Amino acid sequence: MEYDPKHTSTVVLKPFSQSHGVGVARSVSVDLNNDASLLIDIPDALCERDKVKFTVHTKTTLSSFQKPDFSVPRQHEDFIWLHDALVETEDYAGLIIPPAPPKPDFESPREKMHKLGEGEATMTKEEYTKMKQELEAEYLAVFKKTVQVHEVFLQRLSSHPILSKDRNFQIFLEYDQDLSVRRKNAKETFGSFFKNMVKSADEVIISGIKEVDDFFEQEKTFLLDYSSKIKDSTARAEKMTRSHKNVADDYIHISATLNSLSVDDNTALKKFTNVEGRVASDEELKLTELLRYYMLDIQAAKDLLYRRARALADYENSNKALDKARLKSKDITQAEEHQQQCLQKFDKLSESGKRELTSFKGRRVVAFRKNLIEMAELEIKHAKNNMALLQGCIELLKSN
Amino acid sequence: MDLSKKTFHWMMTQRICLQETACYTNAVTQEATEEVSLDSPEREPILSDGPSPAITPVTPTAMLTPRMGLGTAEMFERSLDEIEEDDSGDTFDMHIAVSDPEKVGDGMNAYMGYKVTTKTSMTIFSKNETTVRRRFSDFLGLHSKLASRYLHIGYIVPPAPEKSIVGMTKVKVGKEDLSSAEFVEKRRSALERYLMRTVKHPILLKDPDVMMFLESSELPRAVSTQALSGAGILRMVNKAADAVNKMTIKMNESDAWFEEKHQQFENLDLQLRKLHASVECLVCHRKELSVNTASFAKSAAMLGNSEDHTALSRALSQLAEVEEKIDQLHQDQAYADFYLFSELLGDYVRLITAVKGVFDHRMKTWSKWQDTQLLLQKKREAESKLQFANKPDKLQQAQDEIKEEIEELEGKVQQGEKDFELISKTIRKEVSRFEKERVKDFKVVIIKYLESLVQTQQQLIKYWEAFLPEAKAIA
After folding, report:
1. Sign (positive or negative) of CA dihedral B346, B347, B351, B354
2. Model pLDDT for residues A190-206, shown as the tens digit of each residue
3. A263: which chain B residues are within 8 Å (Cβ-Cβ)?
4. Of B78, B208, B151, whose CA–CA distance to B423 is shortest?
5. Which chain B residue shows the shortest CA-CA distance from A389?
């Protein structure tokens, strides 16, 4: 992975085809973007201070769009708006809504950059340059990651038979002015916050509801358990890759000092530190990112289950209401209609839910497989590189 | 102990035990310990219960035993220089191993006894293989004798390992945990390196105290190494006095070589300390990495258990196993980081302090010589002034007295000059030997360290290649 050396506070990314990170988007959510009728990608992005501006590029053969090929600038908040709009759409209650991309987080490299600036006086020029390069690489890595998760989000939508036709989605892709007028105003935000609170309370009640369908019963148990495990694994994988980066950084300091001691020829040691740094970041890409993505995805699947459970509860309640109405001989038709509606809704949710959850499992297995294979292959490649470097260094030392 | 088994893996010395000598009995007085900083007392003359510090290099003949192979009379005539050159055709062939730490006694009187095995083919030793038991204060005692004998005449005496209150107290109190085992292992390894460095020095090797240390079954207890003994307190006073003196001595350095070397060693000191700090950081981070890898492995195993797709579940469990093995790798690597790299650097930081001490001694020798010269000058002036003294009857007596004093002083000035030249010559030789040793030492250790890294990488490849088919088997 090469990095673009012309860095200032604004960073421009080269088109993805040039970087090796292009695999990540595909592997985390496999085989998207293969429907030529609607192709979406994020070819570049700008980073200004805290704000990242993504360029969302669409190529389509669908007549519902005004142009066949166009691009719009979007901010992270626009993606969140789109996600929330989809979640709140009743019609999609039976679908797994792809998880919203996490907010771009440059905190870690920024903090390190700050510390590096403070410690500049205690380092040699070479050491400082090397550390700075590593930091810039890290910064770039964070940047690439955030672009990819945003891209994957859009691609999941475009490849979904129902969601791709969503009106809000279209607006998101096409509307060539600032979307902020469409975004929530303060009142609505508060409203959705409140709704989330209610939802969590509901979840507690609903998870106690007796399940009528074996499939869903199994799924529920599995998802609940898996969700907490994967959250745990993600956190620990993060810690592990961070430690690994620390070790790589230490090697930078060591090789710089060895240099000034001119005890041996340590260009090999320098290269070794490069490779160690790469190992840490590859590990992160393949393993940690995979786990993190699926942690979110599983949450989305759980949300689907809850919506369905809610529909079931509504149906059961409507049954009770109907019985009560029959007893009182009042508003029977109304109650019957209501009950029918609930039943329909519940059936629809169950049907589409089953479909979604099955395909979700398939996706998950494939993605894990791909990432685990790639991670193992990368580890092997790096270890072989390291070995060659180190052995060359040893030869050199022995021959002196 | 498991740790000592590990040292086989890293250290090159051989261990062949011949005879077990009787265990060292406990002495009456306790060994008080003090925390000593990296600026150790090597730079100051350490008063010990050995022979008093001589100004001229005279071999303490009283300590020679007949088995040395050189008659005592011959030793009188030779200088240390010649001893160094004539090594009776022996190439340096010696291995010392420090092993089998065993706690002797209980409570605060307890101490660690170590087995010291010397294996050599050199003729100056009476046997090819000797085993003795020694305790830490014996090592310190040896060092203090050597330091008092050789430091002030310009020889770089390798510093002994540091005392440590915290570490030793844990051991005494009987805390059988990992950190006290680590402490004992660290100390054992340091003692071994100390002995090897000492005997690699051609002069020190032949010192009778060194021989006695390696060969005799019982040693007199080195009491003056205790911090709170009379000698210990005198040490501290001397340390302070010397620090003040150093500030006031301004030497006219006529020899550019010394100026240059002094500067070089200052730089080297800085760089080594920095490197040492970096490597200690590395050890710390690698231990962290090991802990985090282990915790991830456990979590991945649990994830695998809860996964309902069979092949994926199996792959995740395999991943957990791989990560566990990798954690072990990290631990081993951290061990290497520390024992190969970090400890070597620590040793050298202390050695450089000894080198700087030797330079300081030269300065003191010069200063003494100059002072004597000034005194002589004053006496001469006083002599000429005597001519104008008033009491003629006392004049002759005073003149005789002064003439005597002047003669004595002239002798001292000559000696002072000789001392100064000798120490300068010795230092030049020592420094060049030190540099050669340093380069060799570092090279050997770095190669070993890199080889340990290579091994880690090899293992990594093995583990991941074993995992790959499992990942591919996910259907």
Report:
1. positive
2. 555 655 665 566 566 55
3. 439, 442-443, 446
4. B151
5. B454
